[in-house]
Amino acid sequence: MLRKLLAVLLAGLAFAARADGDPYEGGARQDKPRPGALPAIQGLVISETGALSTTLSGDETEQDCARFRPTEPQLRRYFRQARRVSFKAYTHDLDASRCHAAGELKLANGSTAAWRVDREGRGLVTLPGRGNLYFHCANCLGATPP
User: Fold this and answer.
1) Which of 90, 83, 101 is closest to 140 using CA atoms?
2) What is the spatial distance between Cα 65 and Cα 118, in angstroms, rounded to a whole number?
3) Which H/E stretch holds residue 49?
4) Prediction pTM value
5) Of 2-6, 72-76, 137-141, which gets the smallest average pLDDT?
6) Residue 143 maps to a domain
7) Which of 25, 23, 90 shows the shortest CA–CA distance to 56?
8) Cβ-contact 117, 68 below 8 angstroms
9) 120 lies in which domain range?
């Protein structure tokens, strides 16, 4: 419950800080996934695994997170199978984990995008000039230690 409350607070602060008032990032369309598909992934770079987020509160420790080390094949499967979710679902409705992995995607349209996936299966891809796409798949990463 505390995690969800903090996520709601952080989401509200993030929205308040946005100058453009993006309707998909806390605005009138926050309960709908942003339109448009994620372009095909041609490359996946993992720059961080086993990381502990400082923006969420919770009981997870650095030692807990050190065991969260998804591999490239697991992450490729995640991005193939995960369903798109809304900003509201990502920030309010889904369980969150402080443990995450992050990196960069090389996309078929020639662009790159930052990604982040947490141990609960929430994912975020930031497309330059297009905003954030949110994902969720509780079982797409396979057996990752709790």
Assistant:
1) 83
2) 10
3) strand 41-52
4) 0.81
5) 2-6
6) no
7) 90
8) no
9) 2-136
